[in-house]
Amino acid sequence: MNAVQTYRYLAPSTLTQRSLALQTSGGPTPNPRFFTGFLTTGQAAAVGLLAVAEVARTRYHRPVTPASLDPVVTGSRDRLRFESFSGCCGVYARLDALPEGLDGDVAEHGTTNVDVNNPLREALARVSGLDPLHLSVGPDDLTVSTLDGAVVEKKVPLPVRWLRGFAEVQVLAARFEPRAELPATEAAAFLRRLPRGGDRSVLWVVPAGRSLRLTARPVAGAVCLAGAGRLVALQPMLRFAKTLRVYGPTVAPGSGPAPSVWELDTGALRLSLTLSPEPYRGFSGEGAVLAALAGDDVVDDANLISALLSWDPTIDTDRLAEQAGIDADRVRGALAQLGTAGRVGYDVADAAYFHRVMPYDAGRAERDNPRLVGARALLDAGAVQRDGTAATVRSGDQVYRVRQLADGGLTCTCPWWAKHRGQRGPCRHALATRMLITEQVEEPA
């Protein structure tokens, strides 16, 4: 299933001699150009673009035929971001071309799919040494010739799973902290020691001097490494990198599998891979966004915040809160709502959100999150009865008990909770209870 927004190209992307032309699908004016200039480290940039495209065409869980070949590119004042999800939606890749990596001006803020076809992949693979690489985001004619001849207009739909993945990843990544930093030489040695291929084990890593040590169980300060073979896309970029940084949420002994970010930094470019908590789990089904979407004001807040977004490289939540006259938590809820349309991402290196230019549909949040719809239906039907720190939820002929833990979390007696134990977001019964608690706290005395 694909999203309603589609992207139309006037021609495929091409690389001829010393110029790379990435075709865009449009913006405020038909097919505008929002960046024209050079990538200052041509070979490294070519390798990074190929890595993002390789993730887009790979299914790490149950590999079958190649998936999409159309990463998303965003121009944002002083940088470019190239993003993709794997075919199984369990790996999110991003290449950031930073100000030091660009010799040109980002003329407009824009987002589009990038057509990375096979001729372009082959051409990027031939960029070597000090070859300059000129990047033009947006066409200047109706027909562009590849090495194999002329190709004309192409439509590319944006997969719904990508939109859902964008929404989930930005909520999850906002909880991450830097956990380790390795010099490139140590990073290369560590990556060489990892299991290869279709490994599906869930490992953990902890800092050990200048490197990382593998462990089978989580401990304080550890980072989850699920399906170590999914880091293979980092390998070609290692020779250009200065450091490898690892990010993850706070874990403790007994913690379940968790997502993580692995980022190579060259100084001019950053290539990062975000891994889902387990190799078989795609980000599109994680449910991390549900709690943020449950507020009564979230749609109105999202409309307000959307009007205030600029095309700065990062989103300042405190500034938005001041401008909108709402608190920072409501801003984050609004950003989560906008994230359901792919309009918001999160950069762990900057510890800040960033803006993509995509159509916003307020109804997508509910269409893509049936548990949210179910929770609101339970509330509207008066099916949630709270008593102290617990609640009784009637769903059809079934009755479930939701209990609030000391840390504020909720548990439920339903089959969904028994299966996932909160690892894939709340069940609809717990979500409805959370919404009721919030309503009662906000009611005037």
TrEMBL record:
Report the InterPro entries cross-referenced here: Znf_SWIM
Record-linked Pfam families: SWIM (PF04434)
- Tell me which domain of life the UniProt entry assigns to the organism this sequence originates from: Bacteria
- Keyword list, A-Z: Metal-binding, Zinc, Zinc-finger
Annotated SWIM-type domain ranges read 400-438
- The answer, when asked if Metal-binding is one of the entry's keywords, is yes
Identification of the protein by name = SWIM-type domain-containing protein
